[in-house]
Design brief:
By secondary structure, this protein is an alpha+beta fold. Helices cover 22% and strands 43% of the residues. The longest helix is centred in the last third of the chain and has 48 residues, at 517-564.
Length: 612
């Protein structure tokens, strides 16, 4: 970007939204196109007798009013004037005329009833007051007739034909008509708006202006040729002149980066939100041969952007596109076979490992890759590369290699403690991803394997280069055969489970996977006590059920004896059975109490064991 001459200085602007003076197109000196979707336009504008002007597209006015900076070598205060967003409606709201009233004599005179006029027909003048316009039948349709009250009070009827000239006598009426015509000339919704600049200094001089306006994002197309000296990379810019101004030998700068752009609805009568939500504009992914002549470029890099200023001025008419090379360099590169795990691809990709040795960012874009002696080798997507940055650029598939993935999961118990009736255990979830690589051909190759990183998982396999999104391994692939490579990952997990919620199958699993003999013995004792307790509870339940059944049978016999009330042999047998049941009921109840005591003792031992 070219700065203003030192003798210019930024000045405060007085913005007066009013009709402007005669306009002149500014001379565009420099343009900066940004991937943030803006164009910074720098112009010079002649000022004569304190007046200057330019026309802008209505769509560019918000950006202009937000960002315009004026440099005046005279150091005066510059005033900007332009019609308001509803200037057409405002003009006619203040006039006793409608737009349709200015479409011809008859319509205007009908609206100007009572106005003083002078009419002239073939040199004969008549002065009077307009009373109205009526129609009368004529040979080819109705003819308009003006009714005029002349200075003597007589009423005159005058045909409004081509022989009748008319002039409004009152300067106020003429000014009102002029204002209406000016509004009509402006239009109801003008696509271009005149901006007038005024100053109290009448000296003739050139002002400098610069402002931001929306613009399409410029794109990059990279050409890459594989040579003995590395990758010959040429960047071509594809851009369009949408500034609304012709470029004649303009200094062109191409900027890329992540600057913030705010939309400001300044050329609007009613805007509840002064600014739309801020949007971070990131560098656009765009498009990407060597041995081409490249325009000389001056480049610099900032914290959030890079700029490429072409040393050769650019001439481009408004609305036209241009493609021109702006950067060329040889860069180190290496060709790799790359497989990205977890994406379902069955063939690895052929890729370039590209490193940016330049002290500035390289804009992103599509790259067309040519291999020396082989022609077009494929296209690749180049991300924006910071100074010192690197990227893998995939451009083709290698169908001589096939890759299949198999994932297995296991759980390993690392530690287990029991306290307060709660089991606290730490487990390792193990995930093993096996890559099965089948190769055709008799040459050994190295495969770059990118295994995806996932949150919460730790890599257990060594030899990896850990990156932001993947663990990178280099796998030696045997020729004409199958090579397997396994990546193991671990995910620690802690759990707390109440002993009462543990079933026997889970307890048996923990005993099998116990991390040490002490834990295994603890779990074994707990399992044995739980089995004994379960048996004691079953014994208690069985004894209680037996006692209840015997008591019910005894009660039935007693009821039967009482009901019959006899001393038969059958009743005597029933009485003997009742007496015998007493002993059996006592024995069952004794067995139940013994089972209860045994269960209580086991529960106490379990509580002591688990600390509950």
């Amino acid at each position: 970007m070219t700065p203003f001459p030192h003798l210019f200085r930024a000045l405060p602007l007085v913005l007066l939204l009013a009709p402007g003076a005669a306009q002149a197109d500014p001379q565009v000196r420099a343009v900066t196109l940004s991937t943030a979707g803006t164009a910074l336009v720098e112009t010079t504008l002649p000022m004569t007798e304190g007046q200057a002007g330019l026309t802008l597209r209505r769509a560019d006015l918000d950006g202009f009013l937000k960002s315009v900076v004026v440099g005046d070598p005279a150091g005066s205060v510059i005033r900007l004037r332009l019609p308001g967003p509803a200037a057409f409606e405002d003009a006619f709201a203040a006039l006793p005329l409608a737009p349709a009233d200015l479409q011809g004599k008859a319509a205007l005179l009908s609206a100007m009833t009572g106005a003083a006029v002078t009419v002239d027909r073939r040199g004969v003048e008549t002065r009077g007051t307009v009373m109205g316009v009526t129609d009368r039948p004529c040979e080819h349709g109705p003819c308009a007739v003006l009714t005029l009250r002349d200075d003597t009070g007589a009423l005159r009827a005058l045909d409004l034909d081509g022989t009748l000239d008319l002039r409004f006598d009152d300067p106020a009426d003429r000014a009102m008509i002029d204002a209406g015509l000016a509004a009509l000339r402006l239009g109801r919704d003008p696509r271009r708006v005149a901006v007038a600049l005024g100053s109290d200094d009448d000296t003739t001089r050139d002002l400098s202006l610069r402002w931001l306006q929306p613009a399409p994002v410029w794109k990059t197309a990279w050409r890459a040729v594989d040579t003995d000296d590395g990758l010959a990379l040429t960047g071509w810019a594809v851009l369009e002149n949408t500034t609304g101004q012709d470029w004649d030998a303009v200094e062109l700068t191409l900027a890329t980066g992540a600057v913030q752009v705010l939309e400001a609805a300044l050329y609007a009568r009613d805007h509840a939100d002064a600014f739309a939500a801020p949007a971070m504009e990131s560098a656009l992914m765009a498009r990407s041969m060597a041995d081409q002549a490249v325009a000389d470029t001056l480049a610099d890099d900032g914290a959030s952007f890079s700029r490429f200023t072409l040393a050769t001025p650019v001439t481009l008419a408004a609305g036209q596109m241009i493609s021109l090379p702006f950067l060329q360099d040889n860069m180190p590169q290496a060709q790799l076979l790359v497989h990205r795990g977890g994406q379902g691809a069955s063939h690895p990709r052929i890729a370039l490992s590209l490193h940016n040795p330049l002290p500035l960012r390289l804009p992103g874009g599509v790259m067309t890759y040519y291999q020396d002696g082989r022609g077009h080798a494929g296209d690749a997507q180049v991300p924006e590369l910071a100074p010192g940055g690197a990227a893998l650029l995939e451009f083709a598939r290698d169908t001589s290699l096939r890759v299949a993935e198999d994932v297995a999961r296991t759980e390993t118990l690392r530690s287990l403690t029991i306290a307060d009736g709660v089991v606290t255990l730490t487990e390792d979830l193990m995930r093993r991803t096996t890559y099965r690589i089948e190769a055709d051909g008799d040459a050994a190759r190295d495969l770059t394997l990118d295994h995806p990183r996932q949150s919460g998982w730790e890599l257990a396999t060594g030899g990896a280069e850990s990156r932001l999104e993947a663990h990178r391994f280099t796998v030696a692939v045997a020729p004409d055969g199958i090579t397997e490579f396994t990546v193991t990952e671990r995910q620690p997990r802690s759990r707390r489970i109440a002993v009462t919620d543990i079933d026997d199958s889970l307890l048996d699993l923990w005993m099998r996977d116990a991390p040490d003999a002490e834990t295994e013995a603890l779990l074994s004792d707990l399992a044995a006590l739980r089995r004994d307790l379960a048996q004691a509870r079953r014994d208690r339940a069985a004894a209680e059920a037996e006692a209840e059944d015997l008591a019910a049978e005894q009660a039935r016999l007693v009821d039967l004896i009482v009901a019959l009330g006899s001393d038969s042999a059958a009743d005597r047998d029933r009485r003997a059975r009742v007496d015998a049941l007493d002993a059996r009921i006592f024995a069952a109840r004794t067995a139940r109490r013994a089972a209860e005591a045994r269960a209580a003792a086991l529960e106490a031992r379990i509580a002591e064991l688990i600390g509950g």
